[in-house]
């Protein structure tokens, strides 16, 4: 090893023999900028911004109110649902103060998007709740006990990915045989883990021992890069002091090469196990966490402290006095950067993370997250001109994951994302080695990031398309099934009516003429009532029509009662239908009824004739079957409606009439067939109402826009906020009023139409009673 | 001479039978081309192509009864895929359809909805929830953005809104492509 290292100083190529994984680069580290400074004391920021959305999972739900005073370590937001499934971690107050607002703020995310954040104004007292997690300080014996504490403490991976630690740990004891401690902080400029290891080595070692004890791990391996000798010494010392008989932390020096700190690369380096694609270290019985995470675990388990602060490196070539500092989560970037005495005004974007994997934030006010290890202030340099790829293959030699960056670049540029995926772009750790070595200065990682998000979108779209297809097919099948069912019902009804009529006609051979006119009137009234009931059923929109509707329902009920009575009475010879009632009737009455029935039938023929005019197909079978008036009218209407529906289907304009709307179409058809004028009136009324409603909607939209523009034009924020508040409410009220008026107009028109037909039916029923 | 004829006749009979059996055994149901076209169509079921859904359009295309450039939501990309499957010449999209539009989903202003169920009837994927005289709402996840519900609404309470971009669905922008060196 020593020989190789000496060789490497002479021959840079020999660097590759110092580590196991392929590729890697050795950039200018610039670590001494901040590592040479002692850890500073925590800065009390003017405000703390705590995003509800963590890097992984869904946003938490706030449980505090604006204006509430909170203490340090108090729970501010937690998961509403089962947190174990949705990967939600709770958020705690980093210091005491008042909640100023819960509002959207810019996130430290490459997109610069805004999301809901809790804004905390510190009062400077730093009053804390001791043992906020209510732990007894003893080491958890089972993985589940440890996981519960980690969930409550809100601990997430502090190395960069930010995956909730409780979700990362397996629930079964003994599944993890080797616990890995990641002390290989490989990115240039960043020294926060280095300083943590130097100052809090015992906390890290204790955290690792607690975790290993709970999980039943046999071995703990800690990898630290050779460029942190002080940290290695401190860790070795702590490990020696704290070792048990059977469990100790083995400190291993690893070569200084970027990206040694990447999970898969360090695992390979420490254990010699190269992790397969798509597999997690946990599947292989190994678990790796960052040193800062172990320290946080120790503090949570023994002191009951939730994760509310972390060490952050504030460094960069643009700062006079770079430093490391334990920083409260939520501290704005710019306040920390200002504390490091910038050489020139900070009018350029700061970088979160290191120069290799970090990203520029869109707004320097963004807060420190649990995953923020470094704030970098490098003044903008003239960007190197991007040149075409010369296919030198340097990126391929540098790739620590053995991918083919050049091929992926070509396909990504050509938007052939399926080919990029086949080249395993999802195994890319976005370390930036390829971009770093590229002589043409091609931002290769940008292409892979873009390709990854494109592929994800395409996959999501494919899923959505498949789902849409299934749902559409299901809907078509349902419509088909409903249609068949309706037809079957109709057919059964027709059959029944046919049989009934046949029985009745055979029973009443001799018709009594004098009863004819009265019976005819009664039949007509019944038919009208039935029609009325139907049309009334459709006027469902407004509750203002109950009188007309009730009347219609009553009329329909009466008609059906009469019809039932008659069916019971009309065939005294037919035992199965007449039942008990017919035994009580004497023969004379029976004969009279039969005569009446025959007369009625003649009347029916007339009614069905009317319907035939509108429906020529029905005319073929109604005279033969001679159903009773109600059934005939209904059947005819239904058939007409069905036909109409079929026609519209063929035209392709409307695919279906759902069960809920079919009564309406039927009724409209019915009114159209027998009383054409009211129907057309109704239609016209509806159209007018629709137009009115549309106009109202437009007016509403305009009204909505107006207050907004007013608010925008208002210069003083105080005045505008007081003005804006009532305006939208008023607009909404106006909106509702207008909609109500339109609805009322519609209802009134419908009521009128209903009254018309109601009057007609009343007249006919009077006639029948006389 | 006669043996040769017999041998070849025998061979012909054997292969004929084999082919006949194969044509029955491996018979392809339906038109596979229609299936393939249906797969590339966006399944919005919007009917902007003049057919009552994506499948009817795919079937018409497979029969060669329709143009390849009618799918408006799919845009040029889908048109090229269709022309590749059908082996026909790609045809330019109409001017307005050529520009890709960001996906939008329907949104019901619940203050205005009167509960008429007309939009529910119209929705091809059952993405609208509601009942008669009950306020309706769109299941955003299921909405395909076909805009069929917009014209049927009697009170114009449905509007198409672009999908909100959050940190979850945000995409890394594509880096600017290299200018070719001269």
Short précis:
The complex is a heterodimer of chains A (770) and B (182). Chain A has 770 residues and is of the alpha/beta class.
Describe the fold and architecture.
- The complex is a heterodimer of chains A (770) and B (182).
- Chain A has 770 residues and is an alpha/beta fold.
- Helix content of chain A is 53%, strand content 10%.
- In chain A, the strands form 4 sheets. A 5-stranded mixed beta sheet of chain A has the order 13-12-16-14-15, sandwiched between helices.
- In chain A, helix 17 packs across helix 18, helix 17 runs antiparallel to helix 27 and helix 25 (676-713) runs antiparallel to helix 27.
- Chain A is elongated.
- Residues 536-546, 570-585, 605-630, 651-679, 707-726 and 757-770 of chain A have low confidence and may be disordered.
- Chain B has 182 residues and is mostly helical.
- Among the domains of chain B are: 32-98, 3-methyladenine DNA Glycosylase II, Chain A, domain 3; 104-162, Alpha-Beta Plaits, CATH 3.30.70.20.
- Helix content of chain B is 37%, strand content 8%.
- In chain B, helix 2 (32-40) packs across helix 3 (54-63) and helix 2 (32-40) runs antiparallel to helix 4.
- The radius of gyration of chain B is 25 Å and the shape is elongated.
- The chains are: A alpha/beta (770), B mainly alpha (182).
- Chains A and B meet through helix 16, helix 25 and helix 27 of A and helix 6 of B.
Order of adjacent strands in the largest pleated sheet of chain B: 1-4
- Name the assembly state: heterodimer
Total helices of chain A: the number is: 27
**Pair with the most extensive interface?**
A-B, 58 and 48 residues
Query: How much strand content do the residues of chain A show?
Result: 5-15%
Radius of gyration of chain B, Cα only, in angstroms? 25 Å
Taking the sheet with the most strands of chain B, its summary is: 2 strands, antiparallel
Task: Supply the helix-strand structural class of chain B.
Answer: mainly alpha
Strand portion of chain B: 5-15%
Indicate the percent of residues in helices of chain A.
40-55%
Low-confidence stretches of chain A: 536-546, 570-585, 605-630, 651-679, 707-726, 757-770
Strand order of the largest sheet of chain A: 13-12-16-14-15
Straight-line distance between termini of chain A: 120 Å
